[in-house]
Amino acid sequence: MSVKIRLQRHGKKGKPFYWVVAADARSKRDGKYLEKIGTYNPNTNPATIDLNLDSAVRWLHNGAQPTDTAKAILSYKGALLKHHLDGGIRKGALTQEQADAKLTAWLEAKAGKVDAKKDGLTKAQAAAKAKAFKAEQAVNAKRLEDAAKAEADAIAAESAVEEVEVEEAVAEVEEAPAAEVVAEEAPEVVAEEAPAAEEAPAAEVVAEEAVAEVVAEEAPATEENNEEAQA
After folding, report:
1. Residue 101 main-chain phi, psi, to 5 deg
2. Cis bond leading into 46, ω under 30°?
3. For residues 49 and 20, what is the distance between their CA atoms, to the nearest angstrom?
4. Which helix (H) or strand (E) holds 39?
5. Which of 7, 55, 109, 176 is such that its CA lies 20 to 30 A from the CA of 128?
6. Alpha carbon distances (Å) from 155 to 73, 141, 145
7. Letter string b/e over residues 9-43, b meaning 16 or more CB atoms within 10 A of that residue's CB
8. Helix (H) or strand (E) holding 59
9. Tens digits of per-residue pLDDT, 80-89?
10. Residue 194: predicted pLDDT
């Protein structure tokens, strides 16, 4: 029987979650399997892989053939390296202690790389959050500045309208007394001119009376002269 080490899909739509299984090559992808040897979650960064190293190496020893994705997972977790080292032990090229030491060193180096990647991602995420927060602060400050400017413009416009209204009211108040003064002064002029017209006839009457008195005084003298002449 041909055995394959492959992925069996689980999880929700859009968020796949895989089991790493050893299954008959003739079975369906999501059908029956012989053994579940691990899990693979691509939804995290970096991807989360949980693998039973001994079970995976045993299936490799028995001739199981991994698919391309399963092979990448086995290589990432050191299963292929252990399988290779076990072959060297069987051939006598290595001792068990040497093989275990090499595998341990490799796993530690791999773990260091993974941790460094996680730290880098954490820093990148923190920097991205800080940048986004700074951008949001700038947008909020610009929004507040625009609102304050709009409010100041509105207040200035209202003040300008009020000033115009006050100026117009003051102009109307200043013009009204001028018209009243003209109306009040006009009767005084008439009143001042009227007595002059009334005084003129009085002077003429006085003059006429003076003439009449002179004529009256002279008249008797003339009559006396006439009588003397006749005598």
Report:
1. -65, -45
2. yes
3. 9
4. strand 35-41
5. 109
6. 68, 21, 15
7. eeeeeeeeebbbbbbeeeeeeeeebbbebbbbeee
8. helix 53-61
9. 999 999 999 9
10. 46
